[in-house]
Amino acid sequence: MKVLFVHQNFPAQFKHLAPALAAAGHEVVALTLRRQAPAALKGVRVVTYAVTRGSSRGIHAWAGDFETKVIRGEACFRAALQLRDKGFLPDVIVAHPGWGESLFLRHVWPKSRIGLYCEFFYRSEGADVGFDPETSVVTEAEASRVTLRNAAMLLAMDGADAALAPTRWQASTYPETFRSRIAVIHDGIDTAAAAPDPGATFALDGRLLSRRDEVITFVTRSLEPYRGYHVFMRALPALLKARPNAEVLIVGQEGVSYGVPRQDGVSWKQAMAEEVGPSLSGSEASRIHHLGQVPYDRFLSLLKVSTVHVYLTYPFVLSWSLLEAMSSGCAIVASDTAPVREVITSGADGQLVDFFDALGLAQAVAALAADRPRQERFGAAARRRIVRDYDLASVALPRQIAWVEALARR
Questions:
Q1: What pLDDT does 198 receive?
Q2: What are phi and psi of 226, to 5 degrees?
Q3: What is the DSSP code (8-state) at residue 246?
Q4: How far apart (Å, rounded) are the C-alpha atoms in residues 266 and 116?
Q5: Global pTM value
Q6: For residue 247, which phi and psi values (nearest 5 degrees)?
Q7: In the chain, at which end, N or C, are there fewer CB atoms within 10 A of the end residue's CB?
Q8: In the CATH scheme, what is the code of domain 201-389?
């Protein structure tokens, strides 16, 4: 079987599936943007291409996103033509359609089976848009713009043979017309790497934190409202007063990944420091540690020394970091939002709180930090759930491989 992966930032969600198919004896090729060197994956031939033009000046604001995706789709299309002319005819194409790359592949390989990775379908209500009144108000014009964000996705789905989504809730964001074609298969968690370790340590400012210390952890790609950074920071004055020995470790880069920058040009990190700072004593402020981005092994060590891990999110794509925290046996306090409710049952394998309730969050974290038996109960139950339903080697990867092979046989 010949398999083509298409992702603007390969390997991304395909970092395990692509080499696994290659190891099984299939010919695997990946198409990706040239802007950065992709990670080397054994057995996978990576073909890069470049976008040669930018968006048009003066284009209608609602149409700009679609034009950008057409430009990317054309660049991928031309690279695909070169691959075809060199004799590569894939049986299966597995593509992430989110940036437009898969739009025109059907015209290059009309007989190939196309499977799409369905990460998220934008909606003007019932999901991230308008969820947080502090960051967005959905006017009629904004709802119209959001509708057009899905134009390329709808075209891609119309030309696909099958699709998969990592969670049931993410699949549910797609129109009902397409849902019957979407298999729910998570990317998988390496539960051997993300595993409890009573002897774990984490280096911080010249000392080693361990499971004997009280460590509150918060992890996000960027310090922005989509992942509740503003709510978490507002919880810290009450939390640090209630837990005088707690160290708060925050992972995430300054800026935004999913939302839009603040209109005043100030980063959310700076804005929250200015808002929360006056409510903190000097000793309390010294126990808040912004670590920026950290290497993956250091991220895992952070989870393994965590006393309580906090995860907050809008109704949006579920973060791998939450499942890795569960796999690591963390005691978790998380937002009571739809993506999280799919993986955490409040009171059984974690504690859910209202996303916007900063004081309630502080109280829930403080209570859990003081309750070692409940920490251990939550952590053990969370790990059992991940091993049972999301383990990479025994659950996710076999299902993904079977999905690709079934697609080839259709």
A1: 96
A2: -50, -35
A3: -
A4: 37
A5: 0.95
A6: -105, 130
A7: C
A8: 3.40.50.2000
Q: How far apart are CA 224 and CA 178, in angstroms?
A: 31
Q: How many whole angstroms separate alpha carbon 15 and alpha carbon 29?
A: 13
Contact 46, 18 (CB under 8 A): no
The domain over range 2-188+392-409 is classified in CATH as 3.20.20.210: no
For residue 360 the two structure tokens come to 């309630």
Amino acid at 385: R
Handedness of CA 219, 203, 271, 265 (dihedral sign): negative
Share of the chain above pLDDT 70, in %: 99
Give the Cα separation of 112 and 355 in Å (integer): 44
Q: Is 403 left (phi over 0), alpha (psi -120 to 50) or beta?
A: alpha
Which among 174, 196, 162 is positioned nearest to 410, based on CA atoms?
162
Judging by DSSP bridges, how do beta strands 207-210 and 201-204 pair with one another?
antiparallel
Residue with tokens 């080697």: 393
Q: How many CB atoms lie within 10 A of CB 283?
A: 9
91-105 pLDDT, tens digit each: 999 999 999 999 999
Burial pattern 172-208, b for ≥16 Cβ within 10 A else e, equals: bbbeeebeebbbbbbbbbebeebbbeeebebebeeee
